[in-house]
Target: Acyl-coenzyme A oxidase
Amino acid sequence: MEDLSFIPDISSGPLDVYRKSASFDWKRLKLALEGDIELLKLKYKIWHTLENDPLFAHNRVTPTVDEQKRITQLQLKRINEYKFHTKETFRSSYTKRTRTLMTINEAVQSLNPSVSVKMAIGIYLVSNALLSLGTERHLKFYEAIIVNREILASMSLTEIAHGSDAKLMRTTATYDARTRQFVVHTPDFAAAKCWVGNLGKTCTHTLLFAQLITPDGTNHGLHGFIVPIRDPKTLETYPGLIVGDMGEKIGVHGIDNGFVMFNQYRIPRESLLNRTADVTEDGVYESSFSDPSKILGAALENLSAGRVGIMQESCHSISSAVAIAVRYAASRKQFGERDAEIPLIEYELHQWRLFGYVAAAVVFRVYVESFTRVYLGFVEKSNAGIRVDNLSEAVSEIHAMVSCSKPLLTWTVLQAAQQCREACGGHGFLKCANLGDIRSNHEPTVTYEGDNNVLSQQAGNWLLRQYASARAQAAVDSPIGTVTFLADHARILQQLFHGTETRHLKTAEFITSTYKWLICWLLQQTHDKYESEMASGQSKFQAKTKSQVYRWKSLTTVYAEYLVVIFSLESIEKKEKELQPVLYKLFYLYGLWSLDKHLVEMYQGGYARGEAPTRLIRAAILELCAELKGEIVSVVDALAPTDFVLNSVLGRSDGNLYQNIEQALFNAPDTIGRAKWWRQAVTKTTSKL
Amino acid sequence: MEDLSFIPDISSGPLDVYRKSASFDWKRLKLALEGDIELLKLKYKIWHTLENDPLFAHNRVTPTVDEQKRITQLQLKRINEYKFHTKETFRSSYTKRTRTLMTINEAVQSLNPSVSVKMAIGIYLVSNALLSLGTERHLKFYEAIIVNREILASMSLTEIAHGSDAKLMRTTATYDARTRQFVVHTPDFAAAKCWVGNLGKTCTHTLLFAQLITPDGTNHGLHGFIVPIRDPKTLETYPGLIVGDMGEKIGVHGIDNGFVMFNQYRIPRESLLNRTADVTEDGVYESSFSDPSKILGAALENLSAGRVGIMQESCHSISSAVAIAVRYAASRKQFGERDAEIPLIEYELHQWRLFGYVAAAVVFRVYVESFTRVYLGFVEKSNAGIRVDNLSEAVSEIHAMVSCSKPLLTWTVLQAAQQCREACGGHGFLKCANLGDIRSNHEPTVTYEGDNNVLSQQAGNWLLRQYASARAQAAVDSPIGTVTFLADHARILQQLFHGTETRHLKTAEFITSTYKWLICWLLQQTHDKYESEMASGQSKFQAKTKSQVYRWKSLTTVYAEYLVVIFSLESIEKKEKELQPVLYKLFYLYGLWSLDKHLVEMYQGGYARGEAPTRLIRAAILELCAELKGEIVSVVDALAPTDFVLNSVLGRSDGNLYQNIEQALFNAPDTIGRAKWWRQAVTKTTSKL
Model:
């Protein structure tokens, strides 16, 4: 057994009673959820290092937004100086290097999401894009950005009037053969690049996507360029640019999101990221699809890496949220019989409100850890030029998986954060409970890196293509194997709900087979609706828009839940024996709690009939809640970061709820004493009361 | 027809196309939703007055929390000075006076919720409580608080360790016959009164609820006292008190929520609010239930007035949120065919995401307006000593109605605010879109004035009592008539889903009869579960906790939706003819959109069978969305306050979306130019890039 003494023990206190009832060692579960002891050690190293650095100390009073931007920038610089990544990191395998960088990102994100977003965009995303879209001449930027951390970059894609529809971006880069430069131009404010993280105040370069126009007037579509924005020495912007900050937002206040308008701004020809296409000095456009598998691998990485990162971060956000709410529920007493008050966690309603999200936190982590391995394995093989069968099909499948998983995870975590806040009552509304910040910092993830509603439609496209193949008795293109079962769709659609007792439902077989039926049925519904719209004379575009509600959208949700189910199941089967009982309970709870949301479709499609399916699924959920009550505090101990990182007066591991609130109140600077502005607050009165 | 020229016209612009397609005059609808032209005029008078006062100007940069508290306090003082309520207000009938004060509250809330909460607690709630719990000797406080606005009060009930369970509050007021004083004492920090609005920095008096103990040691339970906290001239707290501010919160930053610990703090005997009970000078406790009907009326008002106010405010919050999202959806284009981009509002998915909430905003307003009349009518009659049949039963029914309506409305509005933010994409994440503040300022309403999950259980208690009567063939105690149909429960439970076309579902009859079935069935389920738990030896307390999930909780939700349905229906029937088509469409949409969430119960209970019910309900919802597309912009024009009050760069009525964003960005002080802290942000580098 590995030595886990690097994980700090939890001090004895009011929660002992719930910790002693657990069937497992929470540190073992923590390791199992991380999946790699070295990465877990790295996380603790980062957390301890930052806890000991006053630059990362928590503020009792929220600084102004400008000050938050300053602190975030300094924290990022400090993290770069700590070199949690080493030169060795960049000499190791792609998978190892990337896992290390991802772990650093996760550790930082759970403490300050603004810093991790700044880092993820300005360092990881841009440097990855340089590798995949650029060539040797751009390596100096790669080195400066990610290896030496000398410059901070940004990525300019979205425009004021266009976000989801990237094709219609209107910023142009017109080649001028005379000077061998591209002339970048923004036609009007609606075409200003916007929401660009790091652009508002700090980045020196941006990776710009603009329509490439050759001297003959041909528009060759969006291409990437590396463009200087600010003088690195003075941080003043260059002439020909109007660069501004987007101003205040709802969350992630430490990020300086910015906008930029280019006024005939000239950049060298070599700024074009020219891996797939280039413009000759004379202005001739040349496409070079010499090595399709590499290009595909690169494309895959570009599209998905950011979203995989968001899924990892989402796992940490939900872990923190449920840890706070569960520890609060175990220490907060309210009502009871004969004045013997009982903790909230004893109430079935409270269990039901929270435990589904605890289960989601666990299976999401297991899923994302497992999926990340698969994902990085494909990219690594592709980068290394190893021949991968069906690479293009695998790329499509991974893209579909990410396109629906990112929405499922981010939305579920958003709901979880809200439910956790409500479950902590009024005290949950305290800023120092941290549930508000967890929520508002998480919130933009449902929009950025692909709006959830738009992004998930792409998974639907892929699923419908596979279904069409299956209907035509052709092979389903599913190298990862997530929908090979579609070959069997006709038989699956004949299946009916089976089970007469809850124990029949608390099985992997029931959960996976029900999901297979749901996917097949929703595919059929979506397909039929789409075809009937087409038959009635609608265009493909119209037919697609008319097939979203109750069909396409539900389909992609169900597919994403199925992915969580099958990946986490496969992974749980391999975990150590001692952990399996609790992991299976959490798995069953997540599966049934998720299926419960699709009961209507089960009835509509004839899979479920009568009262039994609803009664049994719901009874099983409540049984699992009761069974997990004695485990759940230790489960959240395994999910939670250190108390310093969790930063919640309600969620400290010692469970000394009221002492911790008292300490927080009496250490805030403005708690006691009249306001400085008391003279203005007084009302003149003559009456004596 | 009334002259509605006091409502400013909307300037012509990009949204004209959607406004011209409306079947009605939006100003007529606005009046119909307000229900009273004088009150509508008052609202506009307030909005225009505050728009012209720089003290109420919007900030481009969010002030510190302390500064927000200062501004809020000054705004409240200024509003008091404006005297939107007049001396006459206090001479008019109870109903008229209260409607006027409620309208002022609504108008202020839609501009700055912190001011309205400060006012609602510190002026309305406390003065109402003084009237109903106090006697003549407390009238001077009433006068000073609400008529002359000389002192600002607060209400101290919740303690650190007890919120929902008010009976277990531990603050004591022990009578000392020697000095004829009560000695107020807080045993420890867990018993500190907390979350008290206005207590943190500004109030001079608090209405305290404490356990009254007589010299013989008897605890007579919670009683109200009016207690001095700060010297009105200096705002310094008195000796014997530790008063502090709760610090930062998630929203309503302008309110100084505070806590207080009493250390043997002496107050005069006359501080006791002695309408229902008093302590003689010698220390003898005397209860005086001389006029039960008045006491009941007073109790009703105390319990419900705050919650009715929250429902009214919720209607304004959802109105603002949907106005922003719908106007954005009508002006924001994305995707389309052959590069002809189409507005988001044309997408069925987008309609489905938003229009249900627009319908909710309308029917909620109609419901609350109508319910408020009923409610105030009862209180007025009761106050005036007019004999009301079944007063105590009516009080119980109204309490049940409020106890489930406040949760339904506040939760729906919270979801609406979130959906509206997401529907505005990244731009919705801008602080100046105002959706973040609408959401976070609304959020505490699901917790305060009775936690939604706890409060709604009280409606369940009442419903189950009525069901027990109905089962026993006894009379159902429902003077308002909301559940008189329970007498018919056996026949109702025999009913089945009927209808073979969507037009059969788009009827008041279908919606109300389905709700009646749902209420009867969920009553049966909840009752049976409770009885079976009792039969298995559980205590009443345990049986109740085991009947919440899927039963009690669903029951109270369905009952609340039914109340919205029947009250809004009755009111719509009386509206002018020109408005009825659009109001009925909105009503049907709300009804079916809400019923859609209970399809599982319909199948489980055998009311629905096969695919038709789901298919028809969902088809009807999408048909209604399509039918409302041409109406919806004018509907939100009727819901929205003025542009100044709405304060959203995305939701201005002119629809000039990108110009408005441009203006907002270029008028914020920190948009352009490098950060003041640029020297710290620079990274030393030798490379030339």
Q: What stands out?
A: Chain B has a mean pLDDT of 95. Chain B is about 55% helix and 10% strand.
